[in-house]
Amino acid sequence: MNFIDTHQHVIYRDDFGYAWTKDIPELSAGNFTFEDYDALTDGAGVVGTIFMETGVDDADHQAEARFVGQRVGTNNLLGQIASCRPEEEAGFDDWLEEGRNLGVVGYRRILHVVSDEVSQSETFRKNLRKIGRDSLPFDMCFLARQLPIAQALARACDDQILVLDHCGVPDIAASAFESWAEGISKISEMDHVVVKLSGITAYCAPGDYGVDVLRPWVDHILGAFGPSRIVWGSDWPVVNTGSGLPVWIETTRQLLAHLSPDETSAITEKNALRVYGLQ
User: Fold this and answer.
1) Backbone angles phi, psi at 106, to 5 degrees
2) Whole-model pTM?
3) Contact 31, 37 (CB under 8 A)
4) Residue 203 CB neighbours (<10 A)
5) How does residue 106 score in pLDDT terms, banded at 50, 70 and 90?
6) What 3-state class would DSSP assign to 233?
7) Residue 260: helix, strand or coil by DSSP?
8) What domain range is 222 assigned to?
9) How do residues 127-164 score in pLDDT, each as one tens digit?
10) Could you give the angle at the alpha carbon of 22 between the alpha carbons of 16 and 26, nearest 5°?
């Protein structure tokens, strides 16, 4: 089972600000570099990665993309999903233009850290459609309670690929299955929405992220979206707040073991190539 990791973060604290990490013991100090990731995944079947913007402080989000752009094409780094601010009219077109030279294969705006109204503005949706016209996907990062907002955004931008990060952020620790499952089922009805199998061990109770705990949630994702509309991601180093990356890779193997080889390779590798326009 080979993997293309569609959600690889890095942290270079000497270069950029990461205010969101200050209260997370596993992430609040030190760097998490490309070299660290390569060493951690050596021999684990990761054949390519896509960098996912790391939620740097607002002033640094373009500098981060420029920094990563210099590394795209080296080692196994296939491209990057860059941060953007679709709610802002000024400079948005210029940022999309610059992204063409930075190895950008998609964009993201983290939406659970801003007011629910941000993604509902016409400016936001108009700019999102510009990303779609460039044949690039947009990664949606919403909490489970915000899945109706994600559905509304998907309906408003129905002519482009949208990727729902982290399985819609289920509250596994609280066993809040029913409302999350309903939201997932509804958004999966829209064929242009893809879901990312990533991040979910961080939403479990501490230490309680075994296969048996995760299986009902992952099985619902499989049933709702099917193997053709799921991509895989590590969410490293945020995954350290849950299982850690080596365990997450092995857990994924077990969670998908009942699928056919073609279905498994679609989820872990081939869908990423299609969704993010990679060779």
Assistant:
1) 175, 170
2) 0.97
3) no
4) 21
5) very high
6) coil
7) coil
8) 3-275
9) 999 999 999 999 999 999 999 999 999 999 999 999 99
10) 100
Q: Which residues contact 159 (CB under 8 A, 6 or more apart)?
A: 129, 132, 192
229-239 pLDDT, tens digit per residue, is: 999 999 999 99
Q: How far, in Å, CA of 258 to CA of 264, rounded?
A: 9
Instruction: Please give the Cα distance from 73 to 66 (Å, whole number).
Output: 14
Alpha helices in the chain, H assignment, sequence order: 34-41, 61-69, 92-99, 122-133, 147-156, 177-188, 211-225, 245-255, 261-265, 271-275
CA distance readout (Å), 187 to 144, 225, 276: 12, 9, 20
Residue 209 per-residue DSSP state: -
**At CA 136, angle to CA 135 and CA 137, rounded to 5?**
125
pLDDT in tens, 204-243: 999 999 999 999 999 999 999 999 999 999 999 999 999 9
CATH of the domain at 207: 3.20.20.140
Contact 81, 26 (CB under 8 A): no
Tokens of 202: 């961080």
Query: By C-alpha distance, which of 124, 205, 190, 200 is closest to 168?
Result: 200
Number of domain units in the chain: 1
Cα–Cα distance, 211 to 252 (Å, whole number)? 8
Q: Which two tokens stand for residue 175?
A: 């066993």
Amino acid type, 168: G
Sign of the alpha-carbon torsion through 98, 102, 106, 112? negative
Provide the residue type at 22 as one letter: K
Strand, coil or helix: what is 44?
Answer: coil
